[in-house]
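Please, structure for the following, as tokens.
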Amino acid sequence: MANDITGLDEVQAKLRQLGNKRKAKNAANRASRKAMNIVKKAARENAKRIDDKDSPEKIWKNIVVKAGKTKGYDNVTMKVGVKGGARKYANTRANRRANRAGRSYQTQGSKKNPGGDTWYWRFKEFGSATNNADPFLRPALNNNINAVQAEFTRAYSAELDKEIAKL
């Protein structure tokens, strides 16, 4: 989800002053993590609402913020998600050709996770053929998008000030 953030004229001047794209990207990563922690907190609150009280697994404990892979110095990706996931390769032509269809593969789903093995979270989030969706991740972002943008702007400006002070 790409959004244009306005009001960054001051930040753009700081970027020109800094001049080092790597340091600017590091500052952007730190700022985006701080901003996405707002979504993480809201998602945890939403997940606590839908978690089964009798189950030892807790979805809310497995919600994490994780940096995504990007190419170059111009993009930053930060993800909020749930540890644990799908366990088998899909029965597709490519997987059958590679002899992977139906085989298990390593995921972050494990009983060793803080909230246990919560592989079923996607059924709660997206629903299934027999169960209605009860989303907790999507509303966390949708309800906090303005706060996330404001926090990113504030944190990025502060991180750039720290980098410029080091020069």
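The longest strand covers residues 63-67. The CA atoms of residues 125 and 135 lie 4 Å apart.
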